[in-house]
Design a protein that fits this description.
- The complex is a heterodimer of chains A (392) and B (73).
- Chain A is of the alpha/beta class and 392 residues long.
- Chain A contains twelve helices and eleven strands.
- In chain A, strands 3-2-4-7-1-8-11-10-9 form a nine-stranded mixed sheet. In chain A, strands 5-6 form a two-stranded antiparallel sheet.
- In chain B, a hairpin with a 4-residue loop joins strand 2 and strand 3.
- Chain B contains no helices and five strands.
- Chain B has a five-stranded mixed barrel.
- By secondary structure, chain B is mainly beta.
- Classes of the chains: A alpha/beta (392), B mainly beta (73).
């Protein structure tokens, strides 16, 4: 039984310390219900990292969603997509016909995130920006990645967010402005870091009800990281994203080149480069070429983070994955307004949650959403070339 | 699990300088992943506030229960 996204919704994103978190969640759920034309989920899966005990039921009871199974899931930055992963799986297995996945987080009232001091990394003072900075430093040394190329990720995503009224930040920046913003962890500057955000996002997922507007879930995969292989030459996390993406694309029977729009985990600029390479848009170490060629800009062949990404839309941890899914659904349906990318039937979401030392990530989730392009022969898992015939 | 002994020298895999406050650490604070010559990759503080270039040779300067500091050779 295949799962379809009936509807999506989000709150505004930003620092909203005076708005109760449940009200942000109501905005997301109400919009998702209206979009889905369905408001009676048989179960609710909620992703949050720091939400207090009972946050899910507290939020849902005010909306009249009571008496159904409600589960709260924590999976670091991938909590929201993990909730949808489990929701879609439950639909596919026939356990429920319609499930609501909800992600929510309020960080403005909490302050900056600090590494876990009981972990060896955290205990030695390696902040979260620091972990990404290590990868950026390694990339600069091994692949010749420049600070200017890194800055392009920030410039692209902040520009994309200009057309996203719900984004926390947006703007036209120069390379110099990105590089001259305060240094957080060399070489990552402030404009290359996601902000502290509050927000919520939701998706209603259910069995195929035969509506063209519903977005098919072609594949979804979740893994937590294996031990970081110290003999590997790859950046920490690369192999995990690659494994999950290969598994998801394989299950969906599509190739990286078939993807028409992507939302990936750009918590820090280097994250987008590593993700786009691991997904297969470029060879390892060559992600910056995609930016320089315009390939991943909004009007490029494979736009990445048209919403503005985590860097600009914001990164309310538990809500992030479902905000990514909402953007891809809007884009695939042609409902993204002034930030609409060129017509495409196929999109991908990648969320990466980290924080635990010694492994490549707490969790990576990849969703392939939409419909296979016509040249892909649905009867085989074997990729076919764009120019070749489908029976090859 | 067994105890193992490794050389006191290694090569920097990557390094950074943390410039924001982390509880218990005063910025700027240089950190490096060091590939110990015959052992694993470890995270260590770097003496001084400069990030050594990957590939730099380093030596363990301080090893204690909660701290590990290297200096550039």
């Amino acid at each position: 039984m295949s799962a379809h996204v009936y509807g999506v919704g989000t709150s505004n994103f930003g620092r909203q310390p005076d708005v109760p978190l449940r009200e942000l969640a109501w905005d997301a759920v109400r919009e998702a219900f209206a979009d889905a034309q369905h408001d009676r989920p048989e179960a609710v899966y909620v992703g949050t990292v720091f939400g207090e005990s009972g946050i899910a039921q507290r939020t849902l009871s005010d909306l009249g969603i009571v008496g159904v199974p409600v589960l709260t899931i924590e999976n670091a930055c991938a909590s929201g997509t993990t909730a949808l992963h489990e929701a879609a799986d439950a639909v596919e297995r026939g356990r429920y016909r319609v499930v609501l996945a909800l992600g929510l987080e309020q960080l403005s009232t909490r302050g900056p995130l600090h590494p876990e001091p009981r972990d060896p990394e955290g205990g030695r003072g390696l902040s979260l920006p620091g972990t990404y900075a290590m990868n950026a430093n390694r990339y600069m040394h091994v692949y010749g990645l420049t600070r200017e190329q890194l800055a392009l990720v920030s410039i692209k995503n902040h520009r994309n967010a200009i057309e996203n009224s719900r984004a926390q930040f947006a703007g036209e920046y120069s390379i110099a402005e990105v590089l001259e913003s305060p240094m957080i962890a060399d070489p990552i500057t402030r404009l290359q870091c996601c902000p502290l955000s509050d927000g919520a996002a939701a998706a209603v997922v259910g069995t195929d009800r035969g509506r063209a507007r519903d977005v098919p879930v072609l594949a979804h995969e979740l893994r937590s990281g294996w031990y970081w292989d110290h003999r590997s030459t790859s950046a920490c996390g690369f192999k995990l994203v690659e494994q999950v993406a290969v598994a998801a694309l394989g299950r969906a029977q599509v190739r990286p080149a078939d993807l028409g729009v992507l939302e990936v985990h750009d918590a820090f600029t280097i994250g987008e480069l590593v993700a786009t390479e691991a997904i297969g848009l470029a060879p390892e170490g060559h992600g910056a070429d995609l930016l320089e060629r315009g390939h991943t800009w909004r009007d490029g062949a494979q736009p990445v983070n048209p919403s503005g990404g985590l860097l600009s839309r914001g990164h309310p941890l538990g809500a992030t994955g479902l905000a990514q899914v909402a953007e891809i659904c809007w884009q695939l349906r042609g409902e993204a307004g002034r930030r609409q990318v060129k017509e495409t039937s196929l999109g991908l979401v990648e969320t990466m949650g980290g924080g635990v030392a010694g492994i490549e990530g707490n969790a990576c989730v990849v969703f392939v959403l939409g419909r296979r392009p016509r040249h892909v022969f649905a009867g085989t898992a074997k990729p076919v070339s764009a120019s070749g015939n489908a029976n090859g | 699990m067994d105890r193992a002994e490794f050389a006191a020298t290694g090569t920097v895999w990557a390094a950074t300088v943390i410039r924001t406050p982390v509880p218990g650490f005063e910025p700027p604070h240089a950190l490096a992943y060091v590939d110990i010559d015959d052992g694993p990759r470890v995270l260590a503080s770097v003496a001084g506030a400069t990030a050594p270039v990957p590939g730099s040779r380093v030596r363990l300067a301080t090893v204690a229960a909660e701290t590990l500091t290297v200096e550039v050779l």
